[in-house]
Amino acid sequence: MLERKFVKLQTEIPGPKSREILERRNKFVPKGISNNCQSFVKKAQGALVEDVDGNHYIDFAGAIGTLNVGHSHPRVVQALQEQASQFIHTGFNVMMYESYINLAERLCELAPGHFDKQAAFFNSGAEAVENAVKIARKYTKRQGIVSFTRGFHGRTLMTMTMTSKVKPYKYGFGPFAPEVYKAPYPYLYRCPEGMTEQQYSGMIIEQFEQFLVAEVAPETIAAVVMEPVQGEGGFIVPDKAFVKRVREICTQHGIMFIADEIQSGFARTGKYFAIEHFDVVPDLITISKSMGAGVPISGVIGRAEIMNTPEIGEIGGTYAGSPLGCQAALAVLDIIENEQLNDRARKLGERVLEKMRLLADRFEGIGDIRGLGAMCAMEIVKDRKSKTPDKEAVGKIVKAAAERGLMLLSAGIYSNVIRLLMPLTITDEQLEEGLQILEEAIEAVYQNNNPALSVGGE
């Protein structure tokens, strides 16, 4: 184990103070709300977190992709303090505030597409998707909504229906919303053996076209909702040909193409919006998570003629687009631009994938590595021939990393993917220390469980 500069562990994880609070949590907070880490935060800055027991962690989870600009960025803190000293909330639908307009204007300028755009703001990612669906249905006068296998869009009735993973998101919560359909989405790692990437892409495109014959008629579909990179589904990156063909089909049939950028947006993939990598212009874009640097805010950006379809009062909400959220989001946009976080994301991704390739050379359990920009993941399997998902190993790796001071998250419909969502503001030294801890955690799990899975290295 190398000497740590940033991680400092004063107690076991979780420590005595955290365990004491955990007992109260278990008594007063329902178990249905999951907790990845069993410790309780005291303060956090950048990519570093300190818990109530004085233990210091490196954060590779980023509050599930919410902190691209890092914890408590000084510009965000200043913006919030200044706003709170003036007023905290009036309700945009009661008395408006200019920050809402400023944010809408900036996002409309940044979003892809050379046409007039408008933006509306809400509270959460699920709300953004719900409202994008409402707007698309209102505009097209159709009901059908198409999402994709392994997609995740939220926990409300509509967005839960659109989501693929049954447990823990859907099990026992039905009946679900009607007129929602799941289409195939490419997953190159699990393509049929012997098939080339081009052949596989053609097959998935053909399946999507057949889907519009066998499952639902295109003239009844209001919108296709696609994550340009699937987040909870396991950081699955589709090929450009597939995304472009889906866009063409939508255009052909008057279907709204909605890019769900809730996890992939705001510089995570090296561009403001991940859809920009695919040379596709969506009709609507849903945004949240890193938009507010931890302050709840979400939004929908889209073609003005589509966004302007709902009548007065048909969209919005009491806290939708709050002043604090708008000011935080404006600060985030400043930080991305001034600190060149799109460039930083690309460089981080290159280093992370390089490290993952070295780990894959050492450990047979790493079946696949993939990513776009700084949205990177490893898929863990029991063996590379069968590609059987190894959820148990991932759980152990995440736990071993936490015990060593690294915060990690899993993903994938089988929970067998380790995803990395470190703040883009992380320093090179912090990144390297975190990657070293990740390697130690993997090494500890495989050497304890099955030494044969470790196939080289020092």
TrEMBL record:
Coiled coil ranges: none
Enzyme class: transferase
Keyword entries, A-Z: Aminotransferase, Pyridoxal phosphate, Transferase
Catalytic activity: 4-aminobutanoate + 2-oxoglutarate = succinate semialdehyde + L-glutamate; (S)-3-amino-2-methylpropanoate + 2-oxoglutarate = 2-methyl-3-oxopropanoate + L-glutamate
GO biological process: gamma-aminobutyric acid metabolic process
Pathway(s) per entry: Amino-acid degradation; 4-aminobutanoate degradation
Keyword Protein transport among UniProt keywords: no
EC numbers: 2.6.1.19, 2.6.1.22
CC cofactor: pyridoxal 5'-phosphate
Transferase keyword on record: yes
Matching InterPro entries: 4NH2But_aminotransferase_bac, Aminotrans_3, Aminotrans_3_PPA_site, Class-III_PLP-dep_AT, PyrdxlP-dep_Trfase, PyrdxlP-dep_Trfase_major, PyrdxlP-dep_Trfase_small
UniProt similarity note: Belongs to the class-III pyridoxal-phosphate-dependent aminotransferase family.
Protein name per Swiss-Prot or TrEMBL: (S)-3-amino-2-methylpropionate transaminase
Protein's organism: Neobacillus cucumis
